Amino acid sequence: MQALTGNNVYLRALEPEDLEFLYAVENDLSFWEVSSTETPYSKHVLRLYLENAHLDIYEAKQLRLVIAESKSQKPIGLIDLFDYNPKHKRAGVGILLIEGEQQKGYGSEALKLLIEYSFRHLNIHQLFANITMDNEKSLNLFKKHNFIEVGVKKDWIFIEGKYKDEGLFQLINV
Fold this sequence. Notes:
Blueprint: E1 4-5, E2 9-13, H1 19-26, H2 32-35, H3 43-51, H4 57-60, E3 63-69, E4 75-85, E5 90-97, H5 106-120, E6 126-132, H6 136-144, E7 148-159, E8 162-172
Parallel strand pairs: 5-6
Antiparallel strand pairs: 1-2, 2-3, 3-4, 4-5, 6-8, 7-8
């Protein structure tokens, strides 16, 4: 897959050289709430994952792309399509940016690139996102890109001894 290029970021496939970046991100406790991670990942497990990252979305039912900053070419985040269903032409979207790279417009540009790719090249009819209702940054990001709240799952996420509501947002390609 060719890199999907914007003005300040581009999206690219995972490479074996991304092992250290992936290890740092997957084991960052601050991301565990949104990724539903419960235990740390070993480098061995992540190396095996990278070896299978070549599987296309039709086979793996997911697609993980690195968000790279255009000037430095350094990885600054990840953006995913998950739960891809080719029959119903839908997929979930997840995005994360590392500390220090948030609130710079990178996430918005990456999400725009992924939306365009999903609708034009994968022929997806709708994208969805699950966002805890206290995650203002993500709520604002997805609403900016016309995702509509279609429901709230009450007490859906249990984290640090508390329940959180999670919103379901959709973007339908009409």
